Amino acid sequence: MNPASLLPWLLAGALLGGGSGLAWTLLRLRREVRRALRLARRADALRALSEVLRDADDPLQQAGHLQQALLALAEPGAAATAQATLLLLKDALPPLNDEQAVLRLGPPLADADVQDGLWLCLREGLAFGPGTGRHEQQGAWYLPLHSRGGRSASAGAACLALGELPPDEQDAQDLRRHAQALCDQMGQALQRAQGTRATRQAREEAQAHKLRNTLLAAISHDYRTPLATILGAASVLEAQADQLSTAQRRRLAASIAAEADQLGRLTDNALQLARLDAPGLGLRLDWESAEELVGAVLRRLRARDPGRRVRARVEAGLPLLRCDAVLLVQLLDNLLDNALKHGGEDTLVEVRVWQRQDGVVLAVRDRGPGVPPAWRERIFEVFQRGDAAGCRGAGVGLAVCRAIAQAHGGELAYRARGHGGASFECRLPLVEQPPASGAAVEPVADGVAAR
User: Fold this and answer.
1) How many angstroms from the chain centroid is the CA of residue 296?
2) I need a labelling partner for 414 at 20 to 30 A (CA). Which of 120, 162, 424, 431 fits?
3) What pTM did the predictor assign?
4) Do 175 and 62 fall within a single domain?
5) Which strands, in side-by-side order, build the sheet including 359-365?
6) Nearest-CA neighbor of 339 among 280, 401, 289, 285?
7) Domain coverage including residue 356
8) Which of 165, 181, 197 marks a domain boundary?
């Protein structure tokens, strides 16, 4: 055969072979491009879910984002039938399967096997389903939500039914690994949240324990002086009553009464501080008039204010206060006791109540030396008694006052008066008033101490 006649066939074969190779190369390139795009979408999905969970205070509230990310893995033709069911632990794993201990998100369960499978996956921390080597006959993947503790620290489980899986086994395995990575992100977020809650609870318990110990130490120390005075005076009365004059007996009885009153105040403040610091505090709220509250406080001051240094000035027409009367009376009583002790022997103490646009202000004012600037916030802290000479008590009175104000939705603040002295002002918010009952309230006389 003439070699020249073979040349066209050789050229045609070369072109055909080159074309086939080029087509195969283009097919591979197209497949790699699709795979690269798929990996990029999956990386974006992981990053988006990570950002959502990173900023979430409670990852359980963001469980819907994980569900949507899992459903997005379905092929376009099977997206309508794809299902993703989540079972997320709210806290610790219960000893028995308990629906109250988990949050379930997904379609209604028509098959009890799905629920059992989720609990099995959660407890064992192992994936099962197609391609996992465990329970391959299942038509869905069961994926644990691993935390950083590994398999034994699963925070939940997901059942993912995509309808159909990629025909290529490697692609199906990559898809399952991506779904597992999404689930693990949620598992780690739940573990972080649980650790944060445990840390916060431990810190609160430690603070409460420290507060109790400090309170007991402070109270036991401050109880000694009044108890010693009471015991001394009572012993003298018992042993030498016949030799004492009437005036001497009255002085001893008065010292016993005064120190017993001090003990009662210490006890009341300690009990209220413990009550106000307890979780789930319930106030005994009722409608009270400011005039009656001030009058009740002034009646309690009779023994401690024989010189009648306290004056009351209550604005007329004040709205009723929605409050716990016992607590507010204790707040005013503590403030007045402080003013009488530290405001100076001859200074007048004033109780003023007036209305502002957003609430009612109850203030106790004096013309004493006031509080140094460095102490104007610290005096409201527990066991801070300032650097005033002769200061007595466990240092809880003003802390109790501020806690009472805050429990009512208000605030207690210190304000230095323009010409010397201190003003402790409790601002209470106004609430919608009850229907008028027609009952008249006897006002506290303006500028006169009500007794």
Assistant:
1) 35
2) 431
3) 0.53
4) yes
5) 310-314, 349-356, 359-365, 422-429, 411-416
6) 401
7) 283-429
8) 197
